[in-house]
């Protein structure tokens, strides 16, 4: 009997060692991730690694941009990737062998906001030549580096393509009046242009072919939405000054608003509050689910800390495209903590740009998040900046920062002592 018991115990221990002690497949290394959009697959470089503490980490890369996932949670063959700032999540299942995964991606804002997701392990190209061969006929332009006048279908103004080409590798961005497209990466292959990106909240694909005259004709796939057609030619664009786009509906240079505090919704704050009188004020209208608003928030935080001791006031108003007040306030607090913002932050439950215009009728038309309004010490508007040229635009971003500083210095020089 004793022999039987010992044998049974040994068998149990063996099963525990084989089943309970089985190690998970190592996922560390480069992956070619892709989203299945209405305009075709959108590939992006994904990298996984296990930290010294044994924690699985992940990041996506677009040119020099690194988009870090806040956390990665794995349970067996199920793996979830989170980006908290956008309430973005990828839920996937790892295939046997650990060299592929598939699932779905979703995010906080927009409708629809889900897409199929898959990834294959290995240092694979975004746009391999076998799957994306260039046209057989020689293109009239071999290198597309430089500035292009780009027009999206339905727009009444130009955008700007800023491209850099090395061999077939192509990087750059697109300046648009409501904000740039951040970092794009892909290829230009004898007349075939392909650029993609995952910025944490959106996935983009720009696809175009060049005609015999050197013009690009393509489509922009923006996640699950229908693609937008676009054309581009290599010439100087007719790009508007971002300080001239958003106008006031009155001649008195008044732009008045009243919103609740994200810290205490019982407290209403207006740009006309007594504490803001006699000093210059910057009011920014932002959306936490927008990468351009994060670029703007980071810049405004630095400027506020620098110029606050000299008398600059600042107010940030957030539109979260939700009627859930608790969720809206949580997003604002997260944005505020991430960028170290110490100025008052307000929130609205407006669901569209049209509703923003209804809440602030002093806007002739509200165009974009972010929008930054400059007030002088008398409370009069001296300038309204629409959108942002973010860090991906290079020299354009540097010029924007200099222009913000110039305007702030001018306002501070004219305030009452």
Percent of residues in helices comes to 10-25%
User: Taking strands numbered 1, 2, ... along the chain, how are they ordered across the largest sheet?
Assistant: 4-3-2-1-9-8-7-6-5
Q: Provide the gyration radius in Å.
A: 25 Å
Mean pLDDT: 93
Cα-to-Cα separation, first versus last residue? 99 Å
Number of helices: 5
Keywords:
disordered N terminus; alpha+beta; 24 strands; eight-stranded antiparallel barrel; 3 domains; nine-stranded antiparallel β-sheet; Glutaredoxin; Lipocalin; 417 residues; globular
Provide a compact summary of the structure.
This protein has 417 residues and is α+β, with helices and mostly antiparallel strands. Helix content is 18%, strand content 37%.
What is the element layout, followed by pairings?
Layout: H1 2-20, E1 29-37, E2 40-50, E3 56-62, E4 65-68, E5 71-75, E6 78-83, E7 88-94, E8 100-106, E9 114-121, E10 146-152, E11 159-166, E12 169-175, E13 184-189, E14 192-198, E15 203-210, E16 216-222, E17 228-233, E18 258-261, E19 268-270, E20 281-286, H2 291-307, E21 313-319, H3 325-339, E22 345-348, H4 353-359, E23 371-375, E24 381-386, H5 395-413
Parallel strand pairs: 20-21, 21-22
Antiparallel strand pairs: 1-2, 1-9, 2-3, 3-4, 5-6, 6-7, 7-8, 8-9, 10-11, 10-17, 11-12, 12-13, 13-14, 14-15, 15-16, 16-17, 18-19, 18-22, 20-23, 23-24
